[in-house]
Amino acid sequence: MPSLENLKKQAKLILRWHREGHYPAAAQIRGLLPRFANMPDAEILAAEFKLSDAQETVAREQGFDSWQALKSGLSTPPSKGQSSPAKAVIVCAEPQLLVRDIERTCEFFREKLGFKVRFSCGKPPYYAQVERDAARLNLRYVAGEAIAPAVRDREQLLSVSMTVATAQEIKLLFLEFQATGAAFQQTLKKQPWGARDFIVRDPDGNLLLFAGPA
Fold first, then answer.
1. What is the pLDDT of residue 196?
2. d(CA 127, CA 36)
3. What is the CB-side half-sphere exposure of residue 64 using CA atoms within 13 A?
4. What stretches of 48-142 adopt beta strand conformation (E)?
5. Domain 149-212, architecture per CATH
């Protein structure tokens, strides 16, 4: 965890971004502070927002309910036997999909694939994030085709791969998406190495692989 001084600087930076009207700050605040959860970006940036609110935002981002709880956690000495990690561990990956219509893509992920929108930036939106369980995908607006469709289809260029824990779950997921009318590039298939997977095509042609173990 960063030092308290660094966290104080983060809080002051969020406060400054709010005052300057940065839309990514609005999305961050909405995602972390419950009282802003249902407010659009413009309302969040126009609302009263104090240093204590920014500190709470930082605290919640670090896994604490309040700034005071964060300070108490930082001041608690490590338990006996606890040592510094030998190396850094990557705990999350967030692939980025390039899309031409953020609202349309968010609706696709909600209605067809059972995701929820974690945040959306701008009006019209230019950046968003959708999530389901442990999977998080970032959506970025682009004006045109990011890759030639013919090349993507010929080479089966995947934009993202997502996995489930069991063979039973991959079948359940396929049936769920089939019932919603999702467009499949490849239906559920057993691969030569024993795993089962299928590929969904999003409205921009991005290929999304869903896979389960043998």
1. 93
2. 19
3. 17
4. 96-99, 116-121, 127-132, 135-141
5. 2-Layer Sandwich (3.30)
Q: What is the mean pLDDT of the chain?
A: 88
- Paired tokens of 194: 């024993």
Going 20 to 141 to 28 to 63, the CA torsion angle's sign is negative
Q: What ranges in 84-209 are assigned the alpha helix state H?
A: 102-113, 149-155, 167-180
Q: Look up the pTM and report it.
A: 0.62
Q: From CA 129, how far away is CA 167, in angstroms rounded?
A: 28
Written as one letter, the residue type at 181 is G
CATH number of 96-141: 3.10.180.10
Mean pLDDT of 83-91: 67
Residue 85 has pLDDT above 70, yes or no: no
CATH 3.10.180.10 in the chain: give the residue spans.
96-141
H or E, element range at 28: helix 23-32
Spatial distance between the Cα atoms of 203 and 113, rounded to a whole number of angstroms: 12
